[in-house]
Amino acid sequence: QQPVQSPQAVILREGEDAVINCSSSKALYSVHWYRQKHGEAPVFLMILLKGGEQKGHEKISASFNEKKQQSSLYLTASQLSYSGTYFCGTESLGTNAGKSTFGDGTTLTVKP
Amino acid sequence: GAVVSQHPSWVICKSGTSVKIECRSLDFQATTMFWYRQFPKQSLMLMATSNEGSKATYEQGVEKDKFLINHASLTLSTLTVTSAHPEDSSFYICSARSEGLGSTGELFFGEGSRLTVL
Question: Quick check: A32 and B106 CB within 8 A?
């Protein structure tokens, strides 16, 4: 079942913050986040496996709620290089071999 | 870090011909690889799961005779689009997950292959 991402699009000024959400109707095994630039393959950002987990790298972080049905990606003090489409990928409990389903994506545009 | 390589990165072919796309894991073994299709401004849609040494598992609505998948070794999976038609034009991406101890669960994506059928 495909996760639901929101918002569909965000436009920011450099230095502003953004939050992207990813929700599932069922508890998940894991959620992972990717950024894709136009014409390129997605690039891995991070994966969350545990309920209540939060992790981050530099100014990008993510959380996974206790029920493991919702994750948020936080982009702090955005840079021009953050522009792209962000996808969350999810693995449901019981899914075999790490099969992932992706949300429709959130297009982030950072302007100077 | 682990790298997945796809080839070719783009291909243009005539309607009715077949096209093969390769996906290689360069520094790790992958018993399972995944093939996705992505239309412009849309999400990645999983087409099939490629299993080394056995038949691929196709998602609902994906024609297995149209999209032939072969996973002959632990580092190579191929997707062949048979008798391609203009509606098959798309961005095809493969991914693989490094397995074993120390694996982070990260999915490594190939660079993608853009297919244009005239």
Answer: yes
pLDDT tens digits along A82-95? 999 999 999 877 65
CB B113 within 8 A of CB B9: yes
Q: Kindly report, residue by residue over B58-85, the tens digit of the pLDDT.
A: 999 999 999 999 998 889 999 999 999 9
Q: Report d(CA B94, CA B73) in Å as an integer.
A: 15
- Using a CB–CB cutoff of 8 Å, tell me whether A47 touches chain B: yes
Tokens describing residue A22: 């990813």
- Write the residue in B43, B44, B97 that is nearest to A98 by C-beta: B97
Total beta-carbon pairs less than 8 A apart between chain A and chain B = 55
- Please list the alpha-helical segments (H only) found in A1-112: none
User: Is residue A27 scored above 60 in pLDDT?
Assistant: yes
* CA distances, B82 to each of B11, B13, B18 (Å): 14, 11, 4
